[in-house]
């Protein structure tokens, strides 16, 4: 199998000036959209309604006035899940072990469906601000705040996996240093989040999700007609029911001894994909319970559909004679996480490669800002205000939230710089959520709350 190749020194690409210019233009577009989103979404016809839906400026920044409609909501919910780690990690998993072991797309789609069925309506109807609110109502402010620890760990690792995916992509296509790419991208997402909160995050998600779908889908036809790609695709890779002496490298296989492991991973991802503040922040910011549920179901479809281009790119990567490309060498295990940027760079014309790069960059920002805002919201409200400083003014809370966003961004950047496997971080995120947050969140949100349960 391809994943059994030995690791070698990471690929290095000379600095690409035209690619840098295109990337700067794209980042400026996203940055400006994020900065002005607050004014666009808080138009006069909705400003008064938004003001009455929240308790102050801090909550308004966290939940966008609880005024997210169907259109923006579907885009922002889907974009939150479809990050750089999702795109690069899906391709990496297909190449390493085959499609049957690429479980994240359908498992997370099931998670969103379950969230819409069992949590969205109840959480929005109770007008919670974060997913920790019902935990604190049930177990008390202090004990409930402890559940921030696994939530923080999962969200930060998620952000780190996303930033790490971008770092590798920009290094391959533009020749940028991983560390510089991660820092610049994270700082841009952090800056417009500081200005507009969820207003900016949701508005930029619309642009970013369009870039993701258009960029990747537009790039695939150019990859398939490249002379280095086998045409037709090798039957040994795509045969669903191969001969007994072999198996499909693309579809992969599940050995009887690994069946339990496969089921364990699936359960972990499905139930570990529910307790995310980035998800509940969209649910709780919806205009009503109906919007909250529709967002979950629509994002479930969008999440699964967004994985299809990544799977196709994985198949193309497996059927490419890389020695016949300008790369001049076969891919090794160390290169699998670079499959998306490598196919863009070596199998498509330069202009197309930069469009694809824009798609990957958009995917990173669309999830990074959401995750950082979510984890910062929980710490500000459920730990700082509810436990340590209940008399904090609205203005002080708002500035504390901004400071927390900066700190959490720095933590995510540090982990991203040190990370090795994008898909591996995805598994760790789900493991933390499924084993700690998911069961307790389910119990606290479904069981009745008596006066003795709260402080």
Overview of the structural elements:
By secondary structure, the chain is mostly helical. It has 20 helices and no strands. Helix 1 packs parallel to helix 11, helix 11 (178-196) packs antiparallel against helix 12 (198-224) and helix 18 (350-388) packs across helix 19 (394-418). The chain is globular, with a radius of gyration of 22 Å. The model is unreliable at 1-9 and 447-455 (pLDDT under 50).
Features:
455 residues; disordered N terminus
**Count of distinct strands:** 0
Tell me the major beta sheet.
Answer: none
Tally of helical runs: 20
- What is the ordering of alpha helices and beta strands? HHHHHHHHHHHHHHHHHHHH
Backbone structural class? mainly alpha
Summed over residues and divided by their number, the pLDDT gives a mean of: 80
End-to-end span in angstroms? 57 Å
Oligomeric organization of the protein chains: single chain
Which segments are poorly predicted (pLDDT under 50) over 5 or more consecutive residues?
Answer: 1-9, 447-455
- The helix content is over 70%
Structural Rg:
22 Å
- Globally, the shape reads globular
Strand coverage percent: under 5%
